[in-house]
Each structure stands twice: as structure tokens, then as C-alpha cells.
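@channel sequence for tomorrow's demo:
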Amino acid sequence: MLKAILISKQDGAQSVRLADLEESELPDAPVTVRVEYSTINYKDGLAITGKSPVVRKFPMVPGIDLAGVVEKSTSDAWRSGDRVLLNGWGVGEGHWGGFAQKARVNGEWLQRVPESFTSRQAMAIGTAGYTASLCVDALVRHGLTPDKGDVLVTGASGGVGSVAIALLARAGFKIVASTGKTNEGDYLKALGARDVIDRNELAQPGKPLQKERWAAVVDSVGSQTLANACAQTRYRGLVTACGLAQGMDFPASVAPFILRGVSLLGIDSVMAPRELRQPAWDRLARDLDAASLDRISTVIGLAEVPNAAQNIVSGRIRGRVVVDVNG
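C-alpha cells (generated this afternoon):
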């Protein structure tokens, strides 16, 4: 028997429970992983609360991330004892995910846990941190250097924002953090932010073109915040978009893009190819220290996942929440 969070749906009503499952109930796939840790992401919160149709079939074990040890494998790429992690690939949406003590997955979805991280640390990073690293990689790849000016990070006290600040600070950038949690200023500055602004400065409708402030932006909020961030980005600046905490809409004009040459870079973490994933994890292994991971993460057990899911979609989570599936 193994414990798992199970989402079911009957007569249009969704239910979530901590269930005891037989290993034989796991989906068929080449690699069986003994899961050690997972983590709560915003998408997991949407899946568990049902606030967005993230789950594509039922019943479903949610959890878009996992880290653990290969137990059995018919894949040539993996063998028993390998330390592995998984981010995305539709796991927790269309294929049973990481909120369980075991998972069966395709070998192509797995990566080795970097030697510098434990499984717990890898999940303190999780999809949120890996997405932040994809954003930083994209900015650097498109020519951003520290001398270009300030970098705005929105949703700064969340998982993406927290890791983005730590990575950007390590690379020498000057960061302005935007957050709705004004009491988190000390936390954000400890991660490396130079200044902290209230998210309300960006959350309300604004002019199509505004005063130039940012050389680049890491945005996990979307909607009006992203529109204002683009309107405030300097000539030939860069904006990465990777989230929708405020909404999926984008109430903007083309003005920043055709009058200032601003580039809007979409960041997809779910289906990103290995040639993007590996450099992102290499950056995390190189530039993110254990002290930062301790500051941005807390640990809960499986039974606490439903409550944590409610908290993350309500904006009551700071940093990263690691799930000890055996705790």
C-alpha cells in the first residue's frame, strides 16, 4: 500500500482525499520512482481546489514535481538507485503525479538530481524555481547584462519570484521586487532585492506607454501587472512572462513593442526541451546556495497538502512549500 492525494470527480463535483492505494493502481510506465519529496506549485493549487480545469482526467494524483530514487526501470536511461527529479510534462494533470509515495513515469521525463542538491533541496526549487531559472537564462541569452539597469521581479514573495531574485542577485543584477506582502521586505532584501515596491503600483490600469524604469522584467503575475511592466520597460528591454496569478488576460497595446522595441519572451516550463532544462538546472546548481533554499522553503506532510493548496491560490504562501510524502 502507498499513500497519495487523490482527486476524484462524480456528478460534476470534485473531491480530494488522502488515500491508500495499491501499487498495482499506478499507471503503466517504464520507470517506477520511490518518491521522497514533492512541492506545492500554483498549478497544483488550482488542480486541488478546482479553481481552474487543470486536471484532464479522473481520478488523478496531483503534483507536477517529484524527486526520489528509481526503484525499477525498463528504460535504458535509468537503473535502480538513480536519484531523479521530474518537472512538468503533464504529470499531475493527465498522468498521476508526485503527491504519492511512488510514481510510474516515462524515462524521458526524468533528470538527474544535481549532485549539489538533496531531493528535498531539489523540491525546494521545484517547477517554480526551475521556471525562474528559465527566465534568467532567457534574459541573459537575449543580451541582458547587469550594466543595463534595474530588473523588476513581480510576484516577488512567491516561488518563482523568490528564486528569480536569488539567481539575479548572484549574477550581479540590481533587482526591484514587487509584492503585495509589504511585510516581506526584509525577506526579499535578504534574497538580494535592492528595493521593494507595492504591487498596487502595477496592478491598476495604466497608460500604454509610461516612464521607462526597467531594463528587464521577470513576471509571474500576468494581466494588468504584465501590461504595466511592459509599458515601463526601457528601449529594447526584455520581459519574460511565465505566470497568471492576477489573470490570463493581457490588457496592453502594441506601443511598447513597436515604439521602444521591447521584447516579450514567453517561458514554458511544462514541455521545455532538455536543451533548455539542463542549462536551467545547471544555473540553479551553480548559483543557488543552500542558505537561500532554507530561507525560501518550509516542509509539510501529505495530509497538509489540501490546506496548502487553498493557501497558495489565495496568495497566503511565501516562497516554496516542500511536501515530504513519507512524513
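heads up for whoever presents: The chain has a mean pLDDT of 95.
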